[in-house]
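Agenda item 2: iron/sulfur cluster complex prediction
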Amino acid sequence: MTISSRNLHLLRLSLRVRPIGTRGFASHSSDSISFSVPVEFKTRTPPYAALLTRLDKVREILNRPLTLAEKILYSHVVDPEEAFAGKNGQIRGETYLKLNPDRVAMQDASAQMALLQFMTCGMDSTAVPASIHCDHLIVGHDGAEKDLKASIAVNSEVFDFLRSCGRKYGIQFWGPGSGIIHQIVLENFSVPGLMMLGTDSHTPNAGGLGAIAIGVGGADAVDALTGTPWELKAPKILGVKLTGQLNGWSAPKDVITHLAGVLTVRGGTGYIIEYFGEGVQTLSCTGMATICNMGAEVGATTSTFPYTDSMRRYLTATRRGPIADAASAVNNLHGYLRADTGAEYDQVIEINLSSLEPHINGPFTPDLSTPLSQFGEAVQKNSWPSKLSAGLIGSCTNSSYQDMSRVASIVQQAKERGVKPKVPFFITPGSEQIRATIENDGFTDVFLGAGAKVLANACGPCIGQWARDDTTKGEINAILTSFNRNFRARNDGNPATMNFLTSPEIVTAMIYSGDMAFNPLKDKLIDANGNEFMLEPPQGDELPPTGFQQGDLEYLPPIDPKPVQSAEVVVSSTSDRLALLEPFKPFEGRELKMNVLLKVKGKCTTDHISAAGAWLKYKGHLENISNNTLIGAMNEETGEVNKAYDFDGTGYGIPELMIKWKSEGRSWTVLAEHNYGEGSAREHAALSPRFLGGRMILCKSFARIHETNLKKQGVLPLTFADEDDYNLVNGCATIETLDLLQMLNNSGDVSGGITLKVTNQDGSEHIIKTKHTMSKDQIEFFKAGSAINYIGSLRRHQRGQEQQI
Ligand code: MIC
Ligand code: SF4
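Presented output:
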């Protein structure tokens, strides 16, 4: 699509693009003396003074007490006047905000696509500080050393590509073995009051340090990387009031496993979860990160905590004392890092930490929550396996020093009684810093002494990179993990493996029994002499008493890498791992006419739409990875998985039929039920359908990140106005939009809805009403064919103009 210079001018006004070459934080007004930090901390400290100035403007307009999340988010709004004036205070859940995030983090699997898209925009460097983390592509099998070597050998092309992008554009590169994105972000970049985007759904982990950190697809990250304001509908705020204090076997994980049961996987959609109450001050910073991390599992936009002394201690322990001082000052002088007195939440849930018991969630969905005291009964009632087959701890959710030290205290007790784990036990440290510190403090020896396998500092089994050799595919078995997600087949590729999520402490206690009904709060184990004994509740330190070890310094990238314009980014044209992106075609300007390729039944997460595991290797190659599109989805009409039918009744694998219809020039749509696209931020779940000819997804409801990803890639996401209409449409039906053009021309306004005409193969016809949530900018993305087409042409035009001057 070509954009005329007048249009471009108008677009630029509406987007307020940051000029090329101005790299730094969202705002450039200088920090006042009280919040100033030494130069090496500059790009890691939010521009507090500027944020406070903007917040004052917001306050003038809204004139009401604000919650903490509102303060941080709204002070990152590009233009408060434009965003808030004349809205009668109706902001939450209604107003689209244009935001300038302070920083971006990307993990290797999603960074490939994010950077391939960024490259098409023709910029010399990123507009905000950014980091790349190599964590998802590392297999867990034989232990850290061997696995890391093997994974680097297999993935070197991708790692080299990411490293070269880092060099060219001045992005910090954290290589394989350095750690998991969210743990590294917490240790280095998250700061109270920061706003950041991450190309991973668990980016909200950084909320444990009081940031507003939001998981997005790569195209959204490109907004921030190019200095284009990033758009978000102002979330509602769910207040979670914590009272009391955790004790005994209960851990921070139980706050969120319990909350997931209350809210379900959809309950947080459209909300930021903001914790408050006196219980907050009793939690460690990393414990709060665990709670925020798994807020992704209830669909929340993000989660955050007010400033606590434990945050100050953690910042100081992670060698960021001056940032801690600045945060303390901005909070003490201006109360910036806590909610205003009298601030109102849209909903409040109260949790008493003192009486919270451990919870175990699963299988197959993170919100099926059972208190430990009822778990034995649930195992029997549901005929879940009575024996445990493996215990795994770590992942970005639970790999802090505190987690590891509490786990070590349990393993040590068992050792003293001469008892060994009954099932394989795996540990993934979250970062090189954690690995080195637990080694230094003797925990690693304790784990190895118990026969545990310590895997590389990476995602490993959590993302299906678990080369498991003790079970066969199809074998029903139960594992306990301290991870956050437990979708079918996620960890070992076996759809019959039931992953139950819980705290690392409970995983560890259970491996010594091997019995799924074991409850360490009341059940006994037998020691080496045949005597009964009970495990004492775990003990541990919040932070290492002798400080964090940095470990292998080779992993540490320069703090503020400068772009090297001459650096070459090489993508071989014969590679099956990486391929440069061809822009999608712009909108044809006609109503859409397409056929129903598939009606999906039941849960359809991004793991169903774009499977990980073995497919992770194709993340940088759109054509190759698209062969996995929707292979996990169940056909509503036949109950089969990965089966779709052509007009003549011939059955195909789902991507095969997509490829066939694409070659015939036939556009298609997929129908689905609730929370379509639940789970990860992976934008391949939007890119692949688009690449294979998908134009629209029609479902009962969407998960937030996925809905945005579809919009960014030029796919129209619609929801049924009446969800029963799902039953009126059959496979292969023809669907025509009747007022899409009107909606596009009216900048989204056809009362928020689009009318569809459905003609089933049996000739029956239906007119059905649907809803859309397209903002003005998102409509421009749709017209341009994708957000990147739109931003890219804007950027190239701007560049051309600057060169002329
Ligand atoms: C996950 O936990 O599901 C992942 C793998 O980290 C994903 C990211 C991806 O699919 O690239 C996420 O959470 O966003
Ligand atoms: Fe990695 Fe698992 Fe965390 Fe996703 S949830 S970032 S796969 S450790």
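Discussion summary: Residues 1-17, 24-33 have pLDDT under 50 and may be disordered.
Owner for follow-up: CH.
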